[in-house]
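Incident log, structure service

09:12 report received: a user says their structure output differs between two submissions of the same chain.
09:20 pulled the input from the user's history:
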Amino acid sequence: MPSEFIDILKEILADGFTAVKFFKRIRVFSSIRKEAEDALRQTLGTIGTEDNDLGNQARSLLGNIDMYINSSATNNFWSALRIQEEINENRTRETLLHLKKKRHEIRVEANVIEEHDNKSDKAKREIIAGKHAQIVSNTRDNPFWVLPSKMANSTDDTEEDDKEEDNEEDDEEEEESMWKKVSQF
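09:34 re-ran on a clean worker, output below:
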């Protein structure tokens, strides 16, 4: 038995004893009613061993303790305490249920967003792959495809032939760079 119970009960005895005052002060739960009643009996017994007015009062109360413990006020206290605990428990359950529902909604929304992102990424990849395939087929399979630099400088056939011979290496490099750009898609 904690010594604070003795101090609490001494204050209550000096102020006017009721079992309810003791139970309220030690902050009990309805589930430990029997333990609280036993603690009251033990505390009264401990104080009753003292040789003073509080000891005499405690011994007197200890003889009639069942009357105080079973009084309607004490029973009402335990009933009200049990009801309040149930109300608090229900509120806690409701709060937890609300939080679980909210968490579920957030997860569902996140899954929808993720699925949308995945489908968008897939569509982008398909579009890019389609454009890449179209560009490749338009350039490699087309015998009339000409490098853009050749299209801009078509003035004279002889000059073009001279340039082709001189810049054949440049054309190959330009074509390779074009393929690199195309393959980036």
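09:41 both user submissions now match this output. Likely a transient worker issue. Closing.
09:42 reviewer note: The mean pLDDT is 80. Residues 69 and 99 are 41 Å apart (CA to CA).
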